[in-house]
Amino acid sequence: MSITYSPEELEILVAGVLGTAENNVVPIVQLGHPVLRQQAVRYTGQLPGKLLDELLSVMRQTMYAAPGVGLAAPQIGIPLQIAVLEDLYSLPEDMAAEREREPLEYFEIFNPRYEQLGERTAEFYEGCLSFDGFQGVVTRPADIKASYEDREGNPVVREFSGWQARIVQHETDHLSGTVYIDKAATRSLINETELWRHQGLSVASAKEALGF
Known about the structure:
The protein is an alpha+beta fold. The chain contains five helices and eight strands; from the N terminus they run ααββαβββββαβα. The radius of gyration is 17 Å and the shape is globular. The two termini are 30 Å apart.
């Protein structure tokens, strides 16, 4: 589903969302909100520079406050193809190695796309700030090439592998109305109060217990 917005409508919408901020943090919408199922609008400079800077600042702080490793504009009710990403959280060395989880410095993506490189895939639990309290196993390409623009409109092409590739895919999917549960093995879905049953979020343990 795609909805057309004029630049004026988008500016009013963004200003309204930012007006709800407390300590530079806004609410994250949850699954069931229509914006999470829309095709987000391609960003072509519809927002004045100052408003865009404010939006990116609020998205970044909202991501930190959640806390999360990525946040797409639709997750705060704004149907624009913009996301912020960062993963500097530490993990035990064995868990980080299993997930190929390397530090990901903060960056922003506008109008992103990705394509698989090679044949490798990886399956792990992932969660979403807009589906609070649950995680599910998603099989994704392990190596991708992403194409996007920065906030100045410059084209960027980068390759990502492992957990970094998963984050980029997850946030890019949000911009086309896709939530991770659409790609998850539904029998793997687990409430976060049950995570203790599977040390390190072991997919093998969950498969045996849940039968997926």
